[in-house]
Write a structure and sequence with these properties.
Helices cover about 30% and strands about 30% of the residues. The chain contains 7 helices and 16 strands. The strands form 2 sheets. Strands 7, 8, 9, 10, 11, 12, 13, 14, 15 and 16 form a 10-stranded mixed sheet that branches. It has a 6-stranded antiparallel sheet with strand order 2-1-6-5-3-4. The longest helix has 18 residues, at about 265-285. The chain binds pyridoxal-5'-phosphate.
Length: about 290
């Protein structure tokens, strides 16, 4: 049964049960659209500018002009929080190339479909330690433009489901021998005290949490290398962690049932987790300063 929360669809706030998408919306038929997910803590967004920038970049990459719709999304999101009585929430924004008779070519003069959904999240406990999770390895079967936050998530969905089927949290993706990222999180490893992550190019999504972690690490003087690395290096890393908007930072203790180092959450992972929690507290919980 659907809940009665209020969602935003094409300029209107409507009860979820009355929000209807055209059966020929290009998002549903072709995956012809892009999306964003961001977290609000205590009613305030984390890294709002960065999420808006990435959405604009994704739209540009697929030649979709959404006009003024994007600028309206922060106001729309605040409205959704208010109308649904939420302060800790996950916001989902989706923009598609609109509804038109099914033809591959872009339709002419069709307005985009803009959808925003707020769903409740548990308030965080900034003093809780970083979680430890397990992962599996999985071939990266996605396309060649993973930098676009596109609606076409089937390879991610299939791989994540395989991980969940065997009781793991995530599937770490690799193209041949090169590790890229995970299905819905970015990936880091620690080797000899430095942080290593795949460069932000066409093979990974430029995660916003990844960006914040990189900024925090550089500010703290931690050595950072954005370079590609092999499955062998990953399995022999001193630490491995995942990060993302809803995952935050989670240490990877086991991959394919094999322990990473001693099989616990690493010290640098825990330190970065603490720095990240502090960042959220400052920017969103009003505990000194602002801005990410
Ligand atoms: C493939 C992929 N990588 C990384 C991430 C993490 O990105 P962010 O930190 O912006 O949530 C996501 C988030 O959905 C993702 O889908």
């Amino acid at each position: 049964m659907l809940d009665q929360s209020v969602v935003y669809l094409n300029g209107r706030y409507v009860p979820r049960s009355q929000a209807t998408l055209d059966v020929e919306d290009r998002g549903a038929l072709f995956g012809d659209g892009v999306y964003e997910v961001l977290r609000y803590y205590h009613g305030r967004p984390l890294a709002l500018t960065e999420h808006l920038d990435r959405l604009s970049r994704s739209l540009k990459e697929i030649s979709l002009d959404a006009g003024d719709e994007i600028e309206a999304l922060p106001r729309v999101s605040e409205q959704l929080l208010q109308r649904n009585g939420l302060s800790d929430a996950k916001l989902y924004w989706q923009v598609t190339r609109g509804a038109a008779r099914r033809e591959h070519a872009f339709p002419k003069d069709v307005p985009p479909t803009v959808l925003a959904i707020a769903s409740p999240e548990k308030p965080i406990d900034p003093s809780a330690p970083a979680r430890g999770v397990s992962a599996i390895l999985h071939e990266d079967e996605r396309w060649h433009r993973c930098n676009i936050k596109s609606l076409m998530l089937l390879p991610n969905v299939l791989a994540r489901n395989k991980a969940l089927d065997v009781g793991a949290y995530e599937a770490i993706l690799h193209r041949g021998d090169t590790v890229t990222e995970a299905t819905c999180t970015s990936l880091f490893m620690v080797r000899k005290g430095s942080l290593v992550t795949h460069p932000a190019n066409q093979w990974i999504l430029p995660g916003i949490t990844r960006l914040l972690v990189l900024r925090l690490a550089r500010q703290a003087g931690i050595l950072v290398r954005e370079r590609s690395f092999t499955v062998g290096e990953l399995l022999n890393a001193d630490e491995v962690f995942l990060c993302g908007t809803t995952t935050h930072i989670a240490g990877v203790t086991h991959i394919d049932n094999q322990p990473i180092a001693s099989g616990g959450v690493g010290a640098l992972t825990q330190r970065l987790h603490e720095m990240f929690m502090e960042r959220i507290a400052k920017e969103c919980l009003g505990l000194v300063g602002s801005g990410c």
